[in-house]
Design goal:
By secondary structure, the protein is an alpha/beta fold. The protein contains 15 helices and 22 strands. The protein is globular and about 75 Å long. Bound molecules: nicotinamide-adenine-dinucleotide.
Length: about 500
């Protein structure tokens, strides 16, 4: 669970940029990684990524398109057939993935700096959560792959038969900008551990840490062509990857709108697709809780990563008996949080990722208020001294009708919508009226009630007395508009990347 100050890491020298990071960013443009080579885009085109805390260009990157995706998929196919990665004994592959995880640990400060610069998130958060969690995911799936039964004998009399579990081939991944490095780790770790090869298209707003991941994969001894990164825009590089017939599996994390396009493109080629999409999570708060503690926990949850968290709690269903006490505590807590630059050690809330994203958040506040919602805490544009061109937003709390646009749609900023309830059945109905189904939480000191309600809420995840819980081995993923095709982090995700092949012969 993420509290408000959870991510401070004093060992990090805040504000300083490591010379290795400066060197990494100084290549202009930054190249893509295809078939073990660092290459410019075939067209020679580039795009820019900005530091959202300053509004300044951070780096220029090669802008991949169809030709680059063709080259990357061809390299991944070649590596699947001939590099030995797919056929390597699984324990040897695990050693390489552990080496990669160790290198991530070794470069953790650099990665946290890069992630904070590119996404805007507090550096301490990237250092304490995003980076180590990605490394741990590689280790988790590497170890799980070693334990997985690759040959299951089939006991049917008169036959000698067995089922083998083998990797599919080339797997495509398209990621969003909110947790770029973490999601690469969560996404590709099971695919690689199973013996597949991958082509990754990071978000255009945040490509840097994925390129750094490729650099470390190269250093760890992952064979050329096993990990490929095509940087570029969604409509060009992303669309070219999604429609590529050479893929065997596709995984997309992002908005439901783009998820539909990916599913359509993959459907045409009969490529199975895993979709991890948006959310509009609810927190149901009963009147037997420690109000101050819950208010602090939810203030932390809704401002984590400046509210750009798919599974966080943005619909707060508060029992009417504690409504005033909760509102007092949560608004004073949110109001006291420090909005600032990601590298400043006391920052609680960094900028949102782009000017476009800030306009989207402010636009939602405007639409919500015009439709009748009232501010309990007025949000809006924030100014940060010394960083006047950054994309900062104040946290906001709205209240009003459950049908308000801000109660229904994903705002993706530090914005929550408060509603009250008194009846358990009615609040369950209200939570379940959402089109999304990613994650909700129930807060009560009565664990029988909390468990009962948690089981009735329709979503991939129901957390109790906590929000935003991620542990290796506990599956995470959504249903309805929040996703389909299997989640991540659970042991069964490895099976998503292994196909069955049955060998049988009649016994004489
Ligand atoms: P997005 O859908 O706009 O973009 C995601 C990725 O898709 C980017 O790499 C983008 O370049 C690419 N893309 C865009 N258009 C494309 C197209 N036509 N064809 C192929 N690729 C294309 O999402 P975003 O704004 O980057 O991220 C925010 C969304 O991601 C939110 O809805 C959030 O809830 C969701 N998200 C979900 C999870 C989860 O685990 N369920 C995790 C993180 C983010």
């Amino acid at each position: 669970m993420f509290g408000i100050r959870r991510f401070e890491t004093p060992e990090i020298i805040m504000n300083s940029i490591d010379p290795q990071v400066t060197k990494f960013l100084s290549a202009q443009p930054l190249k893509m990684f295809i078939g073990g080579q660092w290459v410019d885009s075939a067209s020679g085109k580039t795009f820019e990524t900005r530091d959202p805390g300053e509004g300044k260009v951070l780096a220029t990157i090669a802008a991949g398109d169809t030709a680059d995706v063709e080259a990357a998929v061809a390299a991944a196919q070649e590596a699947f057939q001939r590099s030995g990665w797919a056929t390597m004994p699984v324990n040897e592959r695990a050693v390489i993935l552990h080496r990669l995880a160790d290198l991530i640990d070794k470069h953790a400060d650099n990665l946290a700096q890069i992630e904070s610069l590119d996404v805007g998130k507090p550096r301490g958060q990237a250092a304490a959560f995003d980076v180590p969690h990605a490394a741990q995911t590689l280790r988790y799936y590497a170890d799980l792959a070693v334990q997985t039964r690759r040959r299951d004998p089939i006991a049917v009399s008169g036959f000698d038969a067995r089922t083998m579990r083998v990797p599919y081939g080339v797997c495509g991944f398209i990621f969003p900008w909110n947790f770029p490095f973490l999601l690469v780790g969560w996404g590709v770790a099971p695919a690689l551990a199973a013996g597949n090869t991958v082509v990754i298209k990071p978000a255009e707003d945040t490509p840097l840490s994925t390129l750094y991941f490729a650099k470390l994969a190269e250093e760890a001894g992952v064979p050329p062509g096993v990990v490929n990164v095509v940087t570029g825009l969604g409509e060009t590089a992303g669309a070219a990857l999604a429609r590529h017939p050479g893929l065997k599996r596709m995984s997309f994390t992002g908005s439901p709108e783009v998820g539909r396009l990916i599913a359509e493109a993959c459907g045409k080629n009969l490529v199975p697709v895993k979709l991890e999409l948006g959310g509009k999570g609810a927190a149901v708060i009963f009147d037997d809780v420690n109000v101050d503690a819950v208010a602090e926990a939810l203030a932390g949850a809704v401002t984590l990563n400046a509210g750009q968290v798919c599974c966080t709690a943005t619909r707060w269903m508060v029992h009417e008996n504690i409504r005033d006490a909760f509102v007092n505590k949560v608004t004073s807590t949110l109001d006291a949080m420090k909005i600032g630059y990601g590298a400043s050690p006391d920052t609680n809330i960094g900028p949102v990722v782009s000017e476009k994203q800030r306009a989207r958040v402010l636009g939602y506040l405007d639409k919500g208020v015009k439709a009748g919602a009232k501010f309990l805490l007025e949000g809006g544009r924030a100014e940060v001294k010394g960083h006047e061109n950054g994309y900062y937003v104040k946290p906001a709390l709205l209240t009003g009708d459950p049908g308000n646009v801000c109660a229904l749609e994903e705002v993706f900023g530090p914005v929550a919508y408060l509603m009250t309830f008194s009846d358990e059945d009615k609040v369950v109905e209200l939570v379940n009226s959402s089109s999304y189904g990613l994650a909700n939480s129930v807060w009560s000191s009565n664990l029988d009630r909390a468990n009962r309600v948690a089981e009735r809420l329709v979503a991939g995840n129901s957390w109790i007395n906590a929000h935003n819980l991620f542990a290796h081995g506990i599956p995470y993923g959504g249903c309805n508009l929040s996703g389909c095709g299997g989640g991540v982090l659970g042991p069964e995700t490895l099976s998503d990347y292994l196909r069955n092949q049955t060998i049988a012969r009649p016994l004489a």
